[in-house]
Specification:
alpha/beta, 6-stranded mixed beta sheet, 4-stranded parallel beta sheet, 44% helix, binds ligand F0G
């Protein structure tokens, strides 16, 4: 967990903590559940693991399958996944098939193929994934010495929200869970959460999580603030929770916001939104002049 004192001040909060998931082995929170899901698949004699993914589940499945000596098959929505995530997944040895359609189409196809019994599905529909993802909540409660006033996290398919809800139920904690989705689910610039119909929508509803909505402009503002004000570079989707907090929509004085994936997962998005560099001659006067101009 990392403190975010400048953003806390900006949001008039006593304490703002970030559950930084970007330092997991493949750069996102997916590893928490994937290590469990792949280990359990191996125990049960699985021959191939399968997932549909907007990129992070893909990289995690590929990595843990390779560690276990198993092949992995990954379905991604064609043309809608960060190139860095695809490169990571390909490098890790997965067979990557780009499905003509959305993530939702790819997930449906993956479920139907898994139902034939030839592949083990390692999307968060697999309960072993959710078991692993509960550990984020356990760690936070342990580290803070008790629950925060609320947990805030992005809402894509809702697997992580339902995992957090399960963990809180097991700890018998009534801590509010705030799940933040994009106003433009099928078209948001945050491709990780470009999901039309969340597969865990019923579980999220039953969990009592409060669902908030942020638009892409709010998401980008929070994403850039986290980087420039706190020195933490995440991928766009990861800033969804923070966007709702900065808007003042989450009650409490001590909040934990989950930052789900690393900024290097989607460098092309950063390239589109970060200030462009200025070309300059290799001359100290020119450099000092250009630097002063940039500050103004
Ligand atoms: N943040 C990141 C970085 C993600 O990759 C995802 C989902 C979410 C948030 C949303 O979490 O689905 O549990 O509500 N990524 C999936 C994938 C869809 O295929 O990598 P959720």
């Amino acid at each position: 967990m990392l403190a975010a004192p400048r953003l806390a001040r900006r949001a008039s909060l006593r304490e703002l903590w970030l559950k930084w998931e970007a330092s997991n082995p493949t750069g996102s929170y997916k590893d928490r559940g994937m290590t469990v899901a792949v280990s359990r698949a191996v125990e049960r004699g699985a021959e191939t693991v399968l997932c549909a993914s907007t990129g992070n589940t893909a990289a995690s499945a590929a990595a843990y399958a390779a560690r276990a000596g198993l092949p992995s098959l990954v379905l991604t929505p064609e043309g809608a996944v960060s190139g860095a995530k695809l490169a990571q997944t390909r490098m890790l040895g997965a067979t990557v098939l780009e499905v003509r359609g959305s993530f939702d189409d790819a997930l449906r196809a993956a479920q139907e193929l898994a139902d034939r019994g030839t592949h083990v599905l390692v999307n968060s529909l697999n309960p072993d994934r959710r078991e692993g993802q509960k550990t984020a909540v356990f760690e936070v409660v342990e580290e803070l010495g008790g629950p925060p006033d609320a947990f805030v996290l992005p809402y894509g398919g809702g697997g992580n929200t339902s995992s957090y809800a399960q963990a809180l139920a097991e700890l018998d904690l009534p801590t509010p869970l705030v799940s933040v989705e994009s106003a433009d689910r099928p078209g948001t610039l945050a491709t990780a959460i470009r999901i039309g119909a969340p597969v865990h929508a019923d579980a999220v509803r039953l969990s009592g999580a409060r669902v908030l909505v942020v638009d892409d402009a709010e998401l980008v503002a929070a994403w850039r603030a986290l980087a420039a004000d706190e020195g933490l570079f995440c991928e766009p989707s990861s800033a969804a929770g923070l966007a709702a907090v900065l808007r003042g929509d989450v009650e409490g004085d001590r909040l934990v916001v989950t930052i789900t994936g690393h900024g290097l997962k989607d460098p092309a998005a950063a390239d589109r939104h970060a200030p462009a560099p200025t070309a300059v001659a290799a001359d100290p006067d020119a450099i000092a002049g250009a630097s002063a101009a940039r500050k103004r």
